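for the writeup, i need someone to sanity check this before i put it in the appendix. the sequnce is what the collaborator sent (i think, or maybe the updated version? ugh). structure was predicted straight from it, no edits. if anything looks off just tell me and ill rerun, i have time this weekend
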Amino acid sequence: MTIQATAPDPLVSPALPPVPDGAALVARPGSAEMRRVLGQFASGVTVVTGLDEGEAVGFACQSFASVSLDPPLVLFCAGHGGTSWPRIRRGGRFSVNVLAEDQDDLCARFGSHTGRRFEALDWSPSRWGTPSLPGVLARVHCSIDAVHRAGDHDVVIGAVDELEWVGDGAPMVFFRGAFAATAPGAPGPAR
């Protein structure tokens, strides 16, 4: 597997440490092993939404994170095989809707490759025009700041335009290849 960097980073030394004896003979992990081992890391579940020529588009996404507080930046990763991300990219803006643990229906709707995701869904446009989904815990409204190609995904950096704290429930979590409830009685965040 070859990893392509978008530009050399002057803060990282171009000299790599020597390869330990025998390490050159070890094959890089395959996709099944990546899923199995990295499935040990629990992640939240979001739906990334946007507009393409006035039509609402979106997809379920577990690869979402905060990048920077100053300036406020977030990231999500989108697979090259998806059809929603290229449409959101054309619009230049997106919203990340953080799902609550009881929103299996939204997760299934936006995680499916078939069907009309917004059909008969009671959503509303944000002040930025991007779709805001009902009943979510939070919304992060962004402008696309940068896109980096990384293997079979794009890493999308969003400049945060607005944050919305919507609900106080528990989040939907993806763990070991399945959706799981969060720990009962877990303390909520400080506001």
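The CA atoms of residues 109 and 116 lie 8 Å apart. The helical segments are 31-38, 84-91, 104-111.
thx in advance!!
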